Amino acid sequence: MTSNTMAQGISRSSGLGFRVAFWNITNQTSRFKLTTNSQEVTSTVSMNGFGSYIYYVSRFQSNIFFETHLGAFAAGTWSYNSDDYDGVSMVIPLLFGLRWDLLPGKLPTSFQPYLTIGGGPYWNTEIQGKSQNVVENEVLVETGMRLGWYAGGGINLTLASWFAFNFDVKHHFINYEMEDDFSGLESSLGFVIMWGAKKEMFQIQNVRVIAQDIYPAYYQFYNTYPIALVTIKNTAGYDIEVNLRSKVQDFSVRPKNSGYFKIRKNRTRDIPVYSLLGAKLHNVSHRRDVVLDIEVEGKAGHKVKKSASAQVTVHSRNAWDGAIDKLGVFLTPEDREIRNYTRSIAQKSDQEPTVQPDNFKMAKAIFSDLVQQNLRYHPDPNIPFYMDDRVQYAQETLERGSGDCDDLVILYATLLESVGIRTAFVEVNDPEKPIAHVYLMFDTGVSPADGFRVSSNDKRYVIRLREGERSTVWIPVEATLINQGFEDAWRSGAMTYLQDGKMRNGLADGWVRIIDHH
Amino acid sequence: MKKIIILLALLFSHCLFASSSVRITDLSGDVKVRRGLDEHWQLARTGMVLETIDTILTGEKSRVKLALAEANNFILGANAILDIADLRRISRKELFLLITSEKIEKLPQRKSGGQLRISNVNVLHGEKKDSVVEKVTNPLLEQAWQQHRNGGIDLLEQKYYTNAIVKFHKTLKTYVEVKDCGEIYYFLGQAFERLENEGQALEAYSNSIKMNFASECIDEQSLFRREKTEKAIMRLKR
């Protein structure tokens, strides 16, 4: 027996049944009487209230059904050689009512008791006759129709989602003006064949993809940020719990469970979908569409599973959506090659004590070494119908020997961060220019009063005060001037900051932004 | 024809250039100019045109008169420093944005549920102790502070209130180490009061009083300024 037929009674939307029934419509006992004497044999047979129903049920709401019954019952007395009247009584009820299944579907049982109530017309016919002699017969026929009602109950034993045995008891309340009152108890036994939609525990109403584009560089982000929201409606008629299990095809190391969310009866709830993305994500060289598989498991005594899917785009490992706040994820200062590179520069650089702060001297030495690497500015390729930016990791830029502004910013910032120098990105989204620009600044670690150790001109540096910290002097550097030397790059960065940020009010207006990643 | 166009273009660009610059019309004593991001100062002379990114410095008993756009003049008194950018027109709205953006910059980064940073370390270790050479102090720190203060006072006295506020803010930010017994805050309060921004003025005066009650603030000037600040606070509270 499948779990979803448990305690469902009529587990589908419709059912057609047949029952044989007993109803003592004439208030007499069934009997057979045989009398013999020397002259004749007389016999009387009385049969009482046997009949049958065919019935149809259809789900109205949750555990409530419409039901329609058409029945036929007959009782009679037949005599042979007796003075008694022969008589037949028939009742044909056409009943309309409601049925209420008592147990919620979450109970793990295949029995479903129910209560019923309804009413309708009861057609009655009584025929009585007596043979006086061979030629004389007396026949009395009486017919009528009365409205009545019934109340009762029963039980279904569900054996399959399409078949159940049924036992039913009804008390009919009919007050005929005829001689007999048919009111009384009726019991029946039969079966029902069911079809139509099964009663659902929940419905998946919508799958809204939030992270339509998955950027490998932000993989940490997707562990805590939902990829999609699945809207689930509880249609069970009782509280249920729902767990979502999701997997991005080819990229998830294993399915990620959302944990069980309670959904109250008849309520709708958005359940977030998370995903565990694995190392394969870092090997994507070209953008591709993949399927997000979602399995929804509803639980309330038994479990029901449904599935849904959505399509998401996994971008290449170098793709960047242009959000400056996220550019920092391309920093890889802990890479062994990067640390070895900056360590070798530190060993080569000037160890003579000077008035210049250590951070400043180190930053200058790193930049000078990059100049010697003969790095060049090189723009990103134009990809038709594809607006994403591309960012190279520091190691890639060193290997390729070129990059655009964000690549060179990432390279220089990574190298500075690898020796413990804090950096920040400066994004210039000039409303008068079609393309945004990014350069960086680094922290010399000296206080504004010691700014003279960097430059006697305070326009060449930026004093930054951050919450909970002391003010320090930061040096803006235009990384795209990688082929011209530190002095030019510094001068250009300082001038850009002064003109865009201060004189044109870019900082106050918000089109110049400084992004820290610490 | 091409030469004429180039000549007209140069002439036109010169007009634009001149319109955003200032000219030295008179000077006396030791007056120096620093161009843009240069490290070195050069002697100023009458008729010299200064650009927005330039800086002007006056020595003791010196002064310089600057001709601005729209026939305005500005006189920078003795022992003062001024960025030419400090003379640009700053509306109240721009001032509000500048002050607000500085406050926003001080705020910690927003911590959202979806942040990318993984924080699992409470305290970072590995600080390098400063060497003797690192502990160089600026011998001209006090003097530089005075030059900026004087530049701000000149702006205040010549009714460049918004510019004076920006200048005083910058001085406060740069010279955190200088114990001025609330002097800059006092002038900042005055500038806000002249702008009829009573809330900001009261805040500045209150900061001035707090700093003025420090143990080293017992000289005659500090006491006199404290008295004037208290009167200003009473006046504003009324």
Architecture overview:
The complex is a heterodimer of chains A (518) and B (238). Chain A has 518 residues and is mainly β. Chain A has three domains: 12-198, Porin (Beta Barrel), CATH 2.40.160; 202-314, Sandwich (Immunoglobulin-like); 321-516, Roll (C8orf32 fold). Chain A contains seven helices and 27 strands. In chain A, the strands form six sheets. In chain A, strands 1-3-4-5-6-7-8-9 form an eight-stranded antiparallel barrel. In chain A, strands 11, 13, 14, 15, 17 and 18 form a six-stranded mixed sheet that branches. Chain A has a five-stranded antiparallel sheet with strand order 25-26-24-23-27. In chain A, helix 2 crosses helix 5 (405-418) and helix 4 (394-400) packs across helix 5 (405-418). The longest helix of chain A is centred in the last third of the chain and has 18 residues, at 486-503. Chain A is rod-shaped. Chain A starts with 11 loop residues before the first strand and ends with a strand. Mean pLDDT of chain A is 86; it is low at 1-9. Chain B has helices at 2-19, 92-106, 141-157, 161-174, 183-194, 198-212, 220-237, and strands at 22-28, 31-34, 42-43, 49-50, 55-58, 63-67, 73-76, 81-83. In chain B, helix 5 runs antiparallel to helix 6 (198-212). Residues 1-19 of chain B have low confidence and may be disordered. Helix content of chain B is 46%, strand content 13%. The longest helix of chain B has 18 residues, at 2-19. In chain B, the strands form two sheets. Chain B has a four-stranded antiparallel sheet with strand order 4-1-6-7. In chain B, strands 3-2-5-8 form a four-stranded antiparallel sheet. Chain B is α+β, with helices and mostly antiparallel strands and 238 residues long. The termini of chain B are far apart. Chain B has seven helices and eight strands; from the N terminus they run αββββββββαααααα. Chain B is globular. In chain B, a hairpin with a 5-residue loop joins strand 6 (63-67) and strand 7 (73-76). The interface between A and B is large, with 50 and 43 residues.
